[in-house]
Amino acid sequence: xxxxxxxxxxxxxxxxxxxxxxxxxxxxxxxxxxxxxxxxxxxxxxxxxxxxxxxxxxxxxxxxxxxxxxxxxxxxxxxxxxxxxxxxxxxxxxxxxxxxxxxxxxxxxxxxxxxxxxxxxxxxxxxxxxxxxxxxxxxxxxxxxxxxxxxxxxxxxxxxxxxxxxxxxxxxxxxxxxxxxxxxxxxxxxxxxxxxxxxxxxxxxxxxxxxxxxxxxxxxxxxxxxxxxxxxxxxxxxxxxxxxxxxxxxxxxxxxxxxxxxxxxxxxxxxxxxxxxxxxxxxxxxxxxxxxxxxxxxxxxxxxxxxxxxxxxxxxxxxxxxxxxxxxxxxxxxxxxxxxxxxxxxxxxxxxxxxxxxxxxxxxxxxxxxxxxxxxxxxxxxxxxxxxxxxxxxxxxxxxxxxxxxxxxxxxxxxxxxxxxxxxxxxxxxxxx
Length: 433
Known about the structure:
By secondary structure, the chain is of the alpha/beta class. Helix content is about 50%, strand content about 15%. Strands 1-4-3-5-6-2-7-8-9-10 form a ten-stranded mixed sheet, sandwiched between helices.
């Protein structure tokens, strides 16, 4: 069995030379290639892409520098460009290259396990299962973004079994006060929402996604932490005002079933798409979003969460990888003329202070996040830390960075049993219902 395909590698590189725009949709990274010369060439191509330079034989030769001679000079680049008549089979060649890479890495990991000398069958089997799951997840070709209507059908089965009117332009945030401070989500911006675990980041994302869906936007959600059915639990709870524990149990009253049916129908009509594949690389997300943009036009992208996005290659340290991911997401926002909202985890340093309101220095493995982000909003709940607080069910949204506007703190009501965020003026009628 061959663990590489040099012809596919040559064809893919040749297609990128004759159709350079494919680099923005490609998921190829140097590690996927077997031939060292091809690794050097794709590295140079990605460098040109990241610096927004056109890819052709001349610019590629310059980017290769001293490596140009090692790969065979311009004559080899010309040979690559002439190796395929069209770029029509690029996706097929790209898939072959990745599959061969997965075979190589899988076999290497199996050899490492074998040489490790495990004397416990369960531990040995567990390592093999872990490798199999990783390879299966990374080799998944089908799937990707899926319309919420399709997913909600599964959710139904699951639960049955168990502006221009004086407001800021842009796309709505979670609430009117946050709209006023941030100026809404603007196109070509990277926006970070950060908090400690269990404060409400994912709930904020889902609330905001539904708001944007109701604005007729096409919404892409990349959920690297939770499977889509769990997201539907939370979305249904928030939209239908049904206690989350009731949704999880499936034991709904007649009144709750009525609410569920109405909410289900309303959500299914929204243009919300969810990709819940774990371990996605930033290259895979960029490729998916580019195709999504071509299909839908006006889009907004949510990512849960930034530190779970794979950098797609080796880095000297974790901070560099997170920094690369954040800068790539910023470029993705610009490429697709859309807002990108990414959740981020905060470090434990917050817990060590008397005042536990987050600060910019608390961004975990911050890398270039602070530099790349156009807005950074921290979520803080005083009742999370202090049960005697007078601010029960109130969440503070601390806008700590805003490249184009003001900073400051706004407050919303946090209905935790629904996973719902509401403005003050709406809170009275909902909580009294």
